[in-house]
Amino acid sequence: MQHLDPLAAHAFLQHQPLAVLVDCRTEIEHMYVGHPAGAEHVAWQEGPDWEIDPKFADKVKRLVRGDLSRPLLLICRSGRRSVDAGLALEAAGFTNVINVLEGFEGPLDEDYHRGKLGGWRCRGLPWYQS
């Protein structure tokens, strides 16, 4: 799995028209916290039980129409869940998986808040909020 920071991931998406950005956070995070412009939403896990969706890889396969070599970027809140999701996709046969470091909100700061030290939103990249 390759890893790109948010700025490099955004540049990659601009130069690779077949690349797909998948937001693997929960539906609530995707809708209410916000999401990168153009991101497709496929949740890795959902509350209240937080079990991993056993159909995650199949849903992503449908999204890329079965092309397992298509560049696939994964983003979550901080870049940790997306690594686990990416490993699962690689195990399912995907060959071009890229994790977005820092995720959408970035790491916790000294006050335990996100969004100030990094992440897609903090870096000023395009995003939307429902």
Please sum up the structure shown.
The protein contains 4 helices and 7 strands; from the N terminus they run βαβαββαβαββ. It has 130 residues and is α/β, with parallel strands linked by helices. Helix 4 (81-91) links the parallel strand 5 (72-75) and strand 6 (97-100).
Structural class by helix and strand composition: alpha/beta
| CATH C-level class | Alpha Beta
According to DSSP, the number of beta strands is 7
Which CATH-level-2 architecture? 3-Layer(aba) Sandwich
Alpha-carbon distance between the two ends:
31 Å
| 3D shape | globular
The averaged pLDDT comes out at 96
Low-confidence stretches: none
Largest sheet: 5 strands, parallel
Round the Cα radius of gyration to an integer and report it: 14 Å
What does this structure look like?
With about 130 residues, the chain is an alpha/beta fold. The chain has one domain (about 1-130): 3-Layer(aba) Sandwich (Oxidized Rhodanese, domain 1). The chain contains four helices and seven strands; from the N terminus they run βαβαββαβαββ. It has a five-stranded parallel beta sheet with strand order 1-6-5-2-4.
